[in-house]
Amino acid sequence: MTTGQFDTDSAALAQRLELQHRLSSFDLNGWIFDLLEPRPGDRCLDLGCGRGEQTLPLAERVGPDGSIVSVDLSGASLDALVAAARDRGVAERIRTVRMALDGVATGLDGGPFDRIVSSYALYYVNDPRPLFDKISKLLAPGGRFLFCGPAHENNLELRRLVVAAGGDKGLLGPTRSSSFMVETGPASCERLFGRVETFRFANPVRFREAEEVVSYWRSHNLYDHRLEEPFRAAVEQAFETAGEFVNVKHGTAVVATPEAG
After folding, report:
1. What are the average pLDDT values for consecutive 10-residue runs of the chain, which has 261 residues?
2. Chain-centre distance of CA 65, in angstroms?
3. Core-most of 49, 64, 123, 207, by most CB within 10 Å?
4. How do 245-257 and 139-150 pair as beta strands?
């Protein structure tokens, strides 16, 4: 899958996450960990770890007897993760690997892992089959594999604003990422794992100021510099009508466990 201009941009990722954390009340990590059920002493793998949104709290949950291998393509994100891990006193539990997801199938050593997690990343792989095959081999008996990402309705309000500003109407349809999460990913798990379950969430992100919406858009793959003026006008019209702008993050998670015995 082709990566967008902000997919490996560590600064843009940090900006989006800061706005989402500040303007919404949904606890994504709490939701993920409730499904993943990490335990003290677990050996974990975080694929597409970014700046450590899951790696860092996971390192605290597995404790001093646990460990995490964190994989990402962005060196800047991995550097930020390591610095944060040192600040939190969990650096010795984490090993970082700079690698594209397509390289995991043939280039990642280690394992088996009790827990494998991938949050908003796995759909960037170009060839899912060898990656899922590798994950099934890396997962320990009794282990749990979770990956999550956008559902078809994700960012629909923001996409409508971009279209209102002159963007391609095709933006209103399913995306490659959501199609992976809803179709390709679950189907890949069904052929490899004994039990596969899907879960959904909706996270309203409430923007109180027009400039926050513009800032968020500028750090997103929906950004198009040619639409700066009409997009700002569309945002201001939205605020005149409703007094705020609410963009709902719709997500889905797939949880897979191996065949019994």
Report:
1. 48 66 81 97 98 97 98 96 98 97 94 96 95 96 97 95 95 94 96 96 92 91 94 95 94 91 45
2. 26
3. 49
4. antiparallel
Which helix (H) or strand (E) segment is 247 a member of?
A: strand 245-257
Cα 21 to Cα 17: distance, rounded to the nearest angstrom? 6
Count of helices and strands (H, E) across the chain: 11, 7
What beta strand segments (E) does 155-230 contain? 195-207
Close Cβ partners of 54 (under 8 Å, ≥ 6 residues apart): 29, 32, 46, 117, 119
Spatial separation of the C-alpha atoms in residues 116 and 136, rounded to whole Å: 10
DSSP 8-state code for residue 158: H
CATH number of residue 191's parent domain:
3.40.50.150
Q: Which helix (H) or strand (E) holds 169?
A: none
Residues across the chain = 261
Q: Are 54 and 32 in contact (CB under 8 A)?
A: yes
The Cα 95–Cα 97 span in angstroms is 7
- Does the residue 3 lie in any domain? no
d(CA 150, CA 181): 7
pLDDT of res. 61: 97
Q: Does residue 49 lie in a domain region?
A: yes
For 76-91, the DSSP string reads HHHHHHHHHHHHHT-G
Tokens matching residue 234: 């569309």
**Containing structural domain, residue 50:** 10-257
Total-model pTM: 0.85
The number of domains in the chain is 1
